[in-house]
Amino acid sequence: MRRAGRLLFLAVALLLGAAAARDAADAWIDATRLPLLPVAQSVEIRDRNGTLLRAYPVADGRWRLGAQPAQVDPAYLAMLIAYEDRRFATHAGIDPRALLRAAAQAAWHGRVVSGGSTLTMQVARLLEGTGTGRWQGKLRQMRVALALERRLPKDRILSLYLTLAPFGGNLEGVRAATLSWFGKEPGRLTPAQAALLVALPQSPETRRPDRAHPAARAARDRVLARMERAGILSPDTAAAARSEPVPTLRRPFPMLAPHLGDRLRLADPARQRHDVTLDARLQSAFEDLAQGALRGRPPHLSVAILAADHRNGEILAAIGSPDYAPGRRQGFVDMTRALRSPGSTLKPLVYALAFDQGLAHPQTLIADRATDFGGYAPQNFDGAFRGELTVAEALRLSLNIPAVALTDALGPARLLAAIEGAGATPVIPGGKPGLAVALGGLGLTLHDLVQLYAGLGNGGRAVPLHSHGPAQPPRRLISARAAWSVGDILSGLAPPPGSPALRLAYKTGTSYGHRDAWAVGFDGRHVIGVWMGRADGTPVPGAFGGEIAAPLLFRAFSRLKSRPDPLPPPPADTLLVPTDRLPPPLQQFRPRNASFAPAPDAPKLAFPPDGARLDLGGLPLVLKLRDGAAPFTVLANGMPVAIRQHGREITLPPPGVGYLTLSVIDAQGRAARAAIRVE
Description:
- With 679 residues, this protein is α+β, with helices and mostly antiparallel strands.
- The protein is 35% helix and 16% strand.
- α13 crosses α15 (400-410).
- It is elongated and about 155 Å long.
């Protein structure tokens, strides 16, 4: 009886001791201070389909891309668990059977033969950055592993392993490994690739495929052999996997749209992932196109391309420079955001505003002749004048005089307001717009120009361009009728020589001094802008938008899609008639103050100008005339001094010192006068 009592007491004591030990162990585990979670990961820029455009290494230079089990090939996960931790799904952080096996093998062989670490213990080691061989380290890993299992679900622990496991060099995580060794994400892997990924973390430096290729292949084949014995791979599959080559070089990480990535990261440095509207396939094609466009050209020449869907404003491709590198092209400068003179590319907006204001119609006749706009006398690019022609033809020929005449009638402030209304941010030298704005006398970016042309292509509704976030509602820029008319005129331009035969509405431009060459165009859905020049703003002799930028624009559209989307039909209120059937006020362009102004072809004194002070030194005075109908009569202070003059240069006898009023009367009785002072 006493013996039974002692046994009962001993059993109770053992149970109480076990309970106390369990409680102490629980308290010990619960008191574990875990490493910081979450761990730092590479910032990622992803395209509209989730494809990686660019990643940034973490602070210590390591590539560590976050990975979830759902992102990884299930066959790899099965091989990983079968090789590293068969009871991962059921143990509490440590696997006693694996530990006993490892201890027995070590005692028998006198050295470590196999490890007993679970995947959770490996995660604990990776989180703390401790070694693998010391028992003190093992004990700490076991404690952290037990604590992790209590606080995190299995999928989260597996995700930490897939993010932190070392794969050689500065590669951490399975995604960094597959991108670097195989050039792809880990969603679909061959058995040979999966086996190599299982083998590398055990000894990432001694098995690096690029530095220890035989060791990497041998380790991979050992994994394949074990998977064959375990029945995970069939003999035929394992044999085929062993014949697959092991990579010998690391591939570079994706570096698409680097300027955009830098800008997004700078704007929101805390965000881990930036999802953008770009298309990785198109971005890659356009970057290749930009690099190819500069082959055989001056080494300082740069290029930028921006493509967008003008219906919703989504940017599809953005090339800030042909190469993201220092050098003569200054590749780190994002030329889609650099201020430049737009040259003639604003003329379509001038004409569209004139259509909306009732100043002109595409078939309105307008004069292209030498004109002085209050001291501003622009010239056409080729120095020639075409006389009278339709507004549509004046726009197609990109003539300067008609564009300035329309801007003069509109008012430069109205043109500037429309540019800003399109979503652009123009910079005006001196702060006050003048007539030169129509010819590029302001600063705009390629992004601004594409924004403006997106409004023209979208029926006159400007949708703000954006690379991330939701689309903004459109704003009415011009009427649908005016937008269609401009698009119809520009689509009548022939493609550049040697370019694909596409029907695009496009315009080219060349800034003063050949500093910038532009081409911007749209079809029924997309808009693309091209800039070429030097990043430092110095001239590029012989650079014309129509010769170097326009062919690139057409090649870009052909890369975008096989055929352009058709331009829309004319709106119902569009007036489609020839010049002679237009309402009389629209048949010929005349400024609003034309009733009080001399006729455009009235005689003008080109020299001397009104208010001039001349020191003739007793020599004759030579008058220079422009326009008017010969013969001419010249009066000096009301007295005839030359009659029946047919030439445009008239020599007068030397006048005396003092004030002199000169008048020139042509054959139709029209006159020009200038008051001068002879000293």
